Amino acid sequence: METLRVKNISKIYGGKKKSKEYVALRDVSFEISKGEFLGVMGPSGSGKTTLLNILGSIDRPTGGKLYIGDKDITKLNKKELAYHRMNNIGFIFQDYNLLNTMTLKENILLPLALRDSSVEYMESKLGELCKKIGIENILNKYPYEVSGGEQQRAAACRALITNPKIILADEPTGNLDSKSSKNLLDLISFINKEYETTILMVTHDIYAASYCDKIMFIRDGEIYNELYSNGNKSELFNSIIDVMAIIGGNRYEI
């Protein structure tokens, strides 16, 4: 993927009167390079999810620009945005968002089916991905028949199936126990390195954030600080704790 550039993005909710306005994001600018694994952290209400929704073209910014390469995503119309989401963005949600009336295989292939891909192509992509992700033996099961960790692996496989330019992960470990969380983080890290997939992960989990190449902290809708990994997870973990202790957060967050 080309570099993703966020230029002076702002998001304001509410009416025309300033007293009733809520500024979720204020003049946010940063870049994500191809293959980068970026974590976004901050206290509840800091603007993390709003930023994720704008990057995923689920919400539009009030001001600013969002570029992939030289293409300004904020200028796309509704139909063009839907096409952009389907072809360029992969999502991994905290609640998996799998359809219980469909098998894991059907859930994973749904994005390709919506693109009218051939059966041969879908089967080829499915076989390659599921073997690497380790869920080839449970594809005919329904989501309610497998563990949370297995559901999240299926969700990760679905996010990858269209070869997206970027994967957006929203609290992916939020509903998992510690063992399943580590397995998922190892998987996301593998996806990042094996496929050179660009990943942006919003998380409260300091352990999860320690897997990232870079951490961006948001407070009150603005970028507060950034940390870079030198490859030592323990050092990054401790540095994250220091920043979170300063910018605030509940016990779960720090």
Quick tags:
single chain, 254 residues, alpha/beta, Rossmann fold, 4-stranded antiparallel beta sheet, 8 helices, 37% helix, disordered C terminus
Q: What is the compact description of this entry?
A:
The chain is an alpha/beta fold and 254 residues long. The protein has helices at 48-55, 78-88, 104-114, 119-133, 148-160, 178-194, 206-209, 233-247, and strands spanning 4-13, 22-32, 37-41, 63-68, 71-72, 89-93, 166-170, 198-202, 214-219, 222-228.
Descriptive report:
With 254 residues, this protein is an alpha/beta fold. The chain has a single domain (32-59, 76-247), classed as 3-Layer(aba) Sandwich (Rossmann fold), CATH 3.40.50.300. The chain is built from 8 helices and 10 strands. It has helices at residues 48-55, 78-88, 104-114, 119-133, 148-160, 178-194, 206-209, 233-247; strands at 4-13, 22-32, 37-41, 63-68, 71-72, 89-93, 166-170, 198-202, 214-219, 222-228. Strand 7 (166-170), helix 6 (178-194) and strand 8 (198-202) form a beta-alpha-beta unit.
Biggest sheet, spatial arrangement of strands:
6-7-8-3-9-10
Order of helices and strands: EEEHEEHEHHHEHEHEEH
**Low-confidence regions:** 250-254
**CATH class term:** Alpha Beta
The outline comes out as: globular
Radius of gyration: 18 Å
Mean pLDDT: 90
In helices, the fraction of residues equals: 25-40%
- CATH 4th-level superfamily: P-loop containing nucleotide triphosphate hydrolases
